[in-house]
UniProtKB/TrEMBL annotation:
Residues 23-148 form the Phosphoribosyltransferase domain. GO terms for biological process: GMP salvage; guanine salvage; hypoxanthine metabolic process; IMP salvage. The keyword Zinc does not apply. GO terms for molecular function: hypoxanthine phosphoribosyltransferase activity; magnesium ion binding. NCBIfam families: PRK09162.1 (NF006605). It catalyses: IMP + diphosphate = hypoxanthine + 5-phospho-alpha-D-ribose 1-diphosphate; GMP + diphosphate = guanine + 5-phospho-alpha-D-ribose 1-diphosphate. It holds the Pfam family Pribosyltran. Gene3D superfamilies: 3.40.50.2020. GO terms for cellular component: cytosol. InterPro entries: HGPRT (IPR050408), PRTase-like (IPR029057), PRTase_dom (IPR000836). This is Hypoxanthine phosphoribosyltransferase. SUPFAM superfamilies: PRTase-like (SSF53271).
Length: 190
């Protein structure tokens, strides 16, 4: 069997055997609730909504259309997993733009796992002179390996157990970002 066929088999097996932690409907409901919270927090402000590529893009698209205040959209690309299932150093692929100076910045990403990615992005936005920086994630993975004890995003839609997650923007080896719920890879596949 060719390596492309082997990969395709693996990807289909991982999806078939995955544990569904949050269904597509549960994800949509949680994003709806979060949108109210974020809308309340930004009353009277005109923030920059910064999507962290690639993982943040599906959550960001679902969230942004439910926010009822004027905002600008921008994006950053920082990655420390680079298609792997364990993280390394944060690598900047697209750096923050100087137009963040003096702005209220809302960082939007798919997952807070260890949190090194978000901490690095917060520092970079502050270094650009952002007036305020808040973070918003679809899912907070529950474990005691956070980069700082008790680290949390300002806004969190859902929590999930300590498995490698995919779906709703999160990848398994670069694939399955398109899966509509949040799934955990079974130990035998990770
Ligand atoms: O909390 P941490 O342990 O730092 O991990 C969280 C980060 O990991 C993923 O990005 P990844 O590096 O996989 O890049 P991607 O968004 O391009 O998939 C995810 O999108 C977060 O940005
Ligand atoms: N896809 C994915 N990316 C991550 N980045 C940090 N943790 C995870 C995870 O569980 N899944």
């Amino acid at each position: 069997m060719s390596s492309a066929d082997q990969l395709q088999q693996e990807l289909r097996r991982v999806r078939r055997e995955a544990i569904e932690l949050h269904s597509s409907d549960q994800v949509q409901e949680a994003i709806g609730k979060l949108a109210f919270e974020v809308t309340e927090a930004y009353a009277g402000k005109v923030p920059v909504f910064v999507t962290i590529m690639n993982g943040g893009m599906i959550f960001a698209a679902e969230l942004v259309k439910r926010l009822d205040f004027p905002l600008e959209m921008d994006y950053l690309h920082a990655s420390r997993y680079l298609g792997e299932t364990t993280g390394g150093e944060v690598e900047w692929l697209v750096t923050p733009n100087a137009s963040l100076a003096g702005r209220d910045v809302l960082i939007v990403d798919d997952i807070l796992d260890v949190g090194s990615t978000l901490l690095s992005i917060i520092d970079a936005c502050k270094a650009q002179g952002a007036a305020s920086v808040k973070t918003c994630v679809l899912v907070d993975k529950q474990h005691d390996r956070k980069a700082r004890p008790g680290l949390k995003a300002d806004f969190t839609a859902l929590q999930a157990e300590d498995l490698y997650l995919f779906g709703m923007g999160m990848d398994y080896k670069g694939f399955w970002r398109n899966a509509p719920g949040i799934y955990g890879v079974r130990e035998s596949n990770s």
